[in-house]
Design brief:
278 residues, alpha+beta, 3 domains, two-stranded antiparallel sheet, 6 strands, disordered N terminus, cell membrane, lytic endotransglycosylase activity, cell wall biogenesis/degradation, membrane
């Protein structure tokens, strides 16, 4: 015969620190099955972890970070990006590059890669797909998606937020003159690397991201731009610059003529050679 444990009314009181739970375990006593009550502590709500996505990260870096944080096999988030039905601009053709907004995101044991990617894209929509961006893009003859692409170049090329407006002006001036952008950052994206060393062979690669060989903006963003880069894309600093080079940390030189630019590049090379020798 089996017996069910039924606490009598008034004998058990729930407290804020605990609750009475009936544990459906079996205790065999002389062949009889008896249900045993256990007093379990109250479950505490899970504290979310934080995942930081820095400005300028490429989608591949974001995917890898999510895989690590959620402890899923490498490549899981990349696959989810293709199947999650993300709310991207039509021009993106399902590619979330540039729309995985840099921010700090809460993560719990219930978070999935698709959830996190969707939240990032929604955050990008709230911050990038604004009326100010749309109006600024229209003023420069661009779509918001092209502006996000420009902002991603600014994010990669500018050494500091203070330089972003000038970098933006260089890009706008080159586009207005139908000059190739000649941005090392787009070559780095094509070659999946990050370096300041660009060879002549690099500038001859066959890639839509080779802005030495092809005019105009690349077909997609090359990283996740932040708000400063987006603001610079639609409101560049006034100027006639067509060139720039970071001679040393904290010292980016902008030039309106190629002759001036060559002098700055020569100084950059001299300082690099000096640093290597020491």
């Amino acid at each position: 015969m089996s017996y069910e444990y039924r606490p009598k009314k008034g004998r058990t009181r729930l407290t804020r620190r605990g609750r009475l739970a009936i544990f459906l375990g079996l205790l065999l006593v002389t062949g009889a099955a008896v249900l045993v009550p256990l007093l379990l502590p109250e479950e505490k709500p899970e504290q979310p972890r934080r995942l930081l996505i820095p400005e300028g990260w490429r989608a591949s870096q974001v995917y890898a970070a999510i895989d690590r944080e959620l402890e899923v096999p490498p490549g899981t988030t990349k696959t989810a990006a293709r199947t999650a039905g993300l709310a991207l601009p039509q021009e993106a053709r399902g590619n979330p590059e540039g729309y995985l907004f840099p921010a700090t995101y809460p993560v719990t044991s219930q978070t999935t890669p698709a959830d996190l990617l969707g939240y990032m894209v929604q955050t990008a929509g709230r911050n990038l797909a604004t009326k100010a961006v749309a109006d600024g893009a229209r003023a420069h003859g661009m779509t918001p998606y092209q502006t996000a692409t420009l902002a991603s170049i600014i994010q990669a090329e500018a050494e500091s937020p203070a330089d972003m407006g000038k970098v933006s002006r260089v890009v706008h001036n080159r586009l207005a003159r139908s000059m190739p952008l000649q941005m090392d950052s787009t070559l780095n994206y094509a070659l999946n690397r990050s370096t300041v060393d660009t060879s002549l062979a690099d500038t001859r690669i066959d890639s839509p991201f080779n802005t030495y060989a092809r005019q105009g903006l690349p077909p997609t963003p090359i990283d996740s731009p932040g708000l400063h880069a987006m603001a610079a894309a639609v409101a560049p600093t006034p100027g006639k610059w067509l060139f720039f080079v970071t001679v040393k940390p904290g010292d980016t030189r902008f030039s309106a003529t190629y002759e001036e630019h060559k002098r700055h590049v020569a100084e950059f090379n001299r300082l690099r050679a000096q640093n290597r020798s020491t």
